[in-house]
């Protein structure tokens, strides 16, 4: 069975994903898809297999999200990621929170910036990444220095690997010039 699966995936088979079309025959990217139907001219019936992040080759799960590129998506070929799959990818984007709001999962991160203009400058840095990736977050600036970024795939109302890729790229920004310095508390004698 395992060889048949591999032969199907690596042959010139047409692999259709019910959750993402953004993977190649040489490498499966998880957990961007939950189910694959492989059809080919091979002498056996099409295989329908369930996948989870745990069933993907170990090397693939080690690919850093920031080195990946967001793939174009549409509601027809994507399904929202479940909480378990999202939790596994969350480990690769430190500082981000997995939030369930109105029944949908999203990523959220907040910063306290030096001042209002630094918040706007930070938005511009994030906007540059978002434009490059073709994947856009919600940006909030409140109380003059509270920046909050929320990411989810709007077309499906939930999370996909694209959201984690964008979060990882945002994490690579040098934020030193934008953020307020923590005030060290002195010990009272």
Automatic annotation (TrEMBL):
One of its GO terms (biological process) is tetrahydrobiopterin biosynthetic process. It catalyses: (4aS,6R)-4a-hydroxy-L-erythro-5,6,7,8-tetrahydrobiopterin = (6R)-L-erythro-6,7-dihydrobiopterin + H2O. Keywords: Lyase, Signal. Residues 1-21 form the signal peptide. One of its GO terms (molecular function) is 4-alpha-hydroxytetrahydrobiopterin dehydratase activity. InterPro entries: PCD_sf, Pterin_deHydtase. Its EC number is 4.2.1.96. Pfam families: Pterin_4a. GO terms for cellular component: mitochondrion. Gene3D superfamilies: Transcriptional coactivator/pterin dehydratase. PANTHER family: PTERIN-4-ALPHA-CARBINOLAMINE DEHYDRATASE (PTHR12599). Belongs to the pterin-4-alpha-carbinolamine dehydratase family. This is 4a-hydroxytetrahydrobiopterin dehydratase. It comes from Ceratopteris richardii (Triangle waterfern). The lineage of its organism: Eukaryota, Viridiplantae, Streptophyta, Embryophyta, Tracheophyta.
């Amino acid at each position: 069975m395992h060889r048949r699966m591999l032969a199907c995936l690596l042959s010139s088979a047409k692999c259709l994903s019910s959750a993402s079309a953004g993977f190649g025959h040489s490498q499966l990217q998880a957990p961007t898809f939950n189910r694959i139907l492989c059809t080919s001219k091979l002498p056996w019936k099409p295989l329908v297999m369930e996948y989870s992040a745990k069933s993907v080759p170990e090397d693939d799960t080690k690919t850093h999200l920031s080195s990946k590129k967001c793939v174009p998506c549409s509601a027809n070929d994507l399904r929202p990621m479940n909480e378990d799959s999202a939790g596994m990818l969350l480990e690769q984007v430190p500082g981000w929170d997995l939030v369930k709001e109105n029944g949908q999962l999203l990523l959220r991160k907040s910063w306290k910036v030096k001042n209002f203009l630094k918040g706007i400058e930070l938005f511009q840095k994030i906007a540059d990444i978002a434009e490059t990736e073709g994947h856009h977050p919600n940006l909030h600036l409140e109380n003059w220095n509270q920046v909050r970024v929320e990411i989810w795939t709007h077309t499906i109302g939930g999370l996909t690997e694209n959201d984690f890729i964008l979060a990882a790229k945002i994490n690579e920004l040098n934020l030193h010039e934008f953020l307020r310095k923590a005030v060290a508390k002195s010990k009272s004698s």
